[in-house]
Amino acid sequence: MIQPAPATGDDIIVGIDLGTTFSLVAYADERGPHVIRDENGDGRVPSVIAFSAAHDAPGAAQPTAGQRQDAAPPHVTVGWQARAHAVENPRATVYSVKRLIGKGLDDIRGDLPFLSYAVGSNDRAGVAVDIDGRRYTPEQISASILVALRERAGRHLARAVRRAVITVPAYFDDAQRQATRDAAEIAGLEVVRIINEPTAAALAYGIGLRGGPRSYGATEPRSHEDEGERRAGPNEPPFDSNPVARRSSHDATAARRAPAEQRVSLPLPHCHEPKAAGADPAVESPPLRHSNPDSAGEIVAVYDLGGGTFDVSILRLEGDVFQVLSTAGDTHLGGDDLDHEIITLVQREVRAQFDVAIESPATRQLLRTLSENVKVRLSDQPTAAIEIDLGRGRVYRRTLTRDEFEQLASPLIERTIDACRRALADAKLAPGDVAEVVLAGGSTRMPLVRRRVQELFGRTPYTALNPDEVVAIGAAIQASVLAGGRRDMLLLDVTPLSLGIETMGGAMGKLILRNTTIPCRATEMFTTFVDGQTAIKIHVLQGERELAADCRSLGEFELRGIPPMPAGLPKIEVEFLIDANGILNVSAREQRSGQQAGIQIIPSHGLTRDEVRRMADESLRFARQDIAAHRRIDLANQVAFDTHKTEQMLARVGDRLDANERRRIERDIAALRALAESVTDLDELHAALDRFGKSTLRLAELGIAEALKP
Amino acid sequence: MMRAACDSAPDPTMSGPQPRATLPLKCHACDRPMELPIACTGCHQLYAPAPQATHFDLFGLPPSYTLDESELRRRFLAASRETHPDRFVGRPDDTVRTSLELSARVNRAYEVLSNPLLRAEYVLELSGGKSAAEDKSVPQDVLTWALMTREELEEGAGADRRAAIGADVRQRYDAQAARIAELARSMPGDDAARRSLRAALNTIKYYASLLREI
Prior knowledge:
The structure holds 2 protein chains of 2 kinds.
Chain A: E1 13-18, E2 22-29, E3 32-35, E4 45-46, E5 49-52, E6 75-78, H1 80-84, E7 93-94, E8 118-121, E9 127-131, E10 134-136, H2 138-157, E11 163-168, H3 174-186, E12 190-196, H4 197-208, H5 227-230, H6 243-264, H7 281-284, E13 298-305, E14 310-318, E15 321-330, H8 335-354, H9 361-380, E16 383-389, E17 395-401, H10 402-426, E18 436-440, H11 447-457, H12 470-484, E19 490-492, E20 499-503, E21 507-512, E22 520-526, E23 535-542, E24 552-560, E25 572-578, E26 584-590, E27 595-596, E28 598-603, H13 609-653, H14 659-678, H15 682-695, H16 697-708
Parallel strand pairs in A: 1-11, 11-12, 13-18, 15-19
Antiparallel strand pairs in A: 1-2, 2-3, 2-4, 5-6, 5-7, 8-9, 9-10, 13-14, 14-15, 16-17, 20-21, 20-23, 22-25, 23-24, 24-28, 25-26, 26-27
Helix pairs in contact in A: 2-3, 3-13, 4-12, 8-9, 8-10, 10-11, 13-14, 13-15, 13-16, 14-15
Chain B: H1 55-59, H2 69-83, H3 93-113, H4 116-126, H5 140-154, H6 159-185, H7 191-213
């Protein structure tokens, strides 16, 4: 275990893409942005979390004597391992938690039939995942992913990582953004900025394309002395490797993992196909370059279809200015929904053929894996075979063609195309005005997606960037901008949804229109209805619909502490300020008294500040317990190894020691083993191990001498 | 519940064209000449403008409907570079707060000034004209025409007819926009001029809403 270096004043800021299916962490240095990869060269961490009770987790420590049994945190695994064992552990493996974050139970009813884990309500309107009777908020579960990413970055950079830029879907509403920020706080990360995923992709596209001295890292000189060192070498590639090579390594990784997945997915879904001759789509379209990066501006569309969410953003790139003109999307439309189409088809056909319902949690998990495989295969091949052994000689077999799958997927993809048209209309542009279409998100590998995007915009989409990594790379670029305060680069984003308040009669009174550049603010005057009234409730909404009931409720804001006055006399000015994270801040002032009115905020969804703080504390405590548990295992292993080795040595060369020393060593072995079983103070065990090593030194030397004898 | 004006509302004490807010000529912090009234582009010191500073004041532009749009954009980007909260990460809370508020004002000012109709509306407000809520007057012939057109659309006009109506509305819209520009170009000096601009702005909203429907 690498000890993090002590924090310095200029802490690094990492960029995190917290995805529905995969998450990544990246950072930027003077050479450019880098995705942090595992030992296999894969930057992706599956956003899958497996819980297991502390006592039965392989390798986990027993609860120590002094620790309350009920306080023992369950053992949590994140990433490939959790994903690989999802079928064995369906009720305690959480995936796609991003689709739950900042949502109410009613919002996610459509997902419930596809989830293998239990989801219920939390104490208020939010959702909670139920694992073995313990309830976890989506914020806490997302925090586990963030902890894994933070640790990955910490190991790679050999220093503590405390600050991050985190990406969210552009179409995330206020509640979802707040919840993401809360998750980071629980994970012990300070969110320096929340940026929108398509905007991050545009940064990676815009910055990444510029070679030479104008490339990433070239900044406006702050002073003349340090100008030279901050400039990237003209031949330095903007990224850590070329995109095509990255794509191939990704494919190699997928192949490497395939056996592991098949091992766990019994009864096995077989998807065997002759290798199709189709070229790697990443190679098909050569990287296009700006004809002139300094020209008055270029319109770029980013089409981002991820595991669970869809966004489209229209940007104007003008030199180093990235201005988002409009954004549209659907926070509940992604690869998961495409998988659901295949799952539903298989379930329906199995029911019809065999009169069997395949809906148990383990089966749901299995079908998910199967459908995902089939979907991915159909991007490269015209057909994929499905085979499910239902037991007792019943085998469901069918071949799904790409055409069939595209028919299933088409209504969903059309929704994304409609959103593109809305975004264009909001930007007051026609498809032909778009100079480049950048693809992000793994689902954009689907030929249907590329075809439809090409048809709409009338141009081949730009695919030279790895769609899995482009968002993380953009986040790392933004992180370095924020850390260094580069003044040449300017990122102007918008709020995706109109903000308003419920007016008399249940209408939505808009205060800030969608696609307004952020930060932005609006003020509104309120007064009282009744003499002596000291509080007013304001219902804050987000959405485009005319009726408050059809919009997203962000919460009831209660203005309290209004000086008692006749009705209509108090003048309370309420300011709604959307910050650069796209998050709403509300403040109020009574104009007559000039005083800041106390506001109590009651969120409709999400966590209160106290809840976030409590969870952050718990998470820290658990982290300490995790570290302690880890160290305990290490020490226990060392004790087992050292005592066993000493016993072997005694058997071989013990006759050269006098009887007293032999007995003493035997006693020491027993004592050390007993201590390892019972000790609560790990430092004490560590010291005992050291003493044991010294007291058996002579024996060890005799053993070595014996071994060296010819 | 009472609804009142948003932040673009004119200060009630204002009447007639406002003089430009007095700007420091040199930065107090670094003594360099000021290119923008709200921040020093040399040392990045922020200068929070008075609450009653106009959208024009923020960019150091004269309060006039006629403006060079590329110059406005250049100043907007320069102001954004200085005020955007991305520049103030890790700075003291009150500095961050100032940048947030200033940046929001800059964005609003650009939104208004870069849109010819909003700019005309704003010029009218600055000159003491009435708001759309206070004066809803629209020429009678426009009202009659809009009523009949809407009826025709609702009764299910054919695609050809709809296209023809669309072209007609578009033409009226463009002509009206040109008229508004004409009226706004010289800051409305007397009540009659302000009323004509008000009515012209009210009228174009009918065309805009019809265009949205078609």
